[in-house]
Amino acid sequence: MGNKELLNKLRAMQTLYARIDQDNKAIEAFTQFLIESKQRCDALSEFYENEWQDAVEEDDSRVEKGLPSLGIEAYESSAPNGKYSILGEDTIWNALVDHRESLLKLLKIIVPMID
């Protein structure tokens, strides 16, 4: 390999190294994001399993008495509020299932990358 070819090769590898170094920092940030995302999912799942039905029934009772829905008020006053009210029949379930499916897709990409 001549000097010019070697220099070009070294430049290309230097660039790859720098980009992988940047990738590593992005992966580290994404790892932290995933940890935080799991905490959010765990809290939402806990609410869904232990409190959601009672909250729905209590809100329905308020509406039957002519009082405003706290579910609608929570939806309108929260930021971000998502696409649907937290008291919607499938809101939490669908969000948790979508989250799981996204993680499974991610695993299918990540696992083959580990050698």
Short descriptors:
4 helices; mainly alpha; 115 residues; 2 domains
Summarize the structure.
The chain contains four helices and no strands. With 115 residues, the chain is an all-alpha fold.
Explain what you see.
Helices cover 80% and strands 0% of the residues. The protein is an all-alpha fold and 115 residues long. It has 2 domains: 1-35; 51-115, no CATH class. Helix 1 packs antiparallel against helix 4 (91-113). The mean pLDDT is 95.
Would you tell me the structural class of the helices and strands? mainly alpha
What is the overall number of helices? 4
> How many distinct beta strands?
0
Radius of gyration: 24 Å
Oligomeric assembly: single chain
Low-confidence stretches: none
Termini gap: 30 Å
The overall pLDDT, averaged over residues, is 95
Number of domains: 2
Q: Largest sheet, if any?
A: none
* Amount of helix: over 70%
Order of helices and strands: HHHH
Strand content: under 5%
> What is the 3D form?
elongated
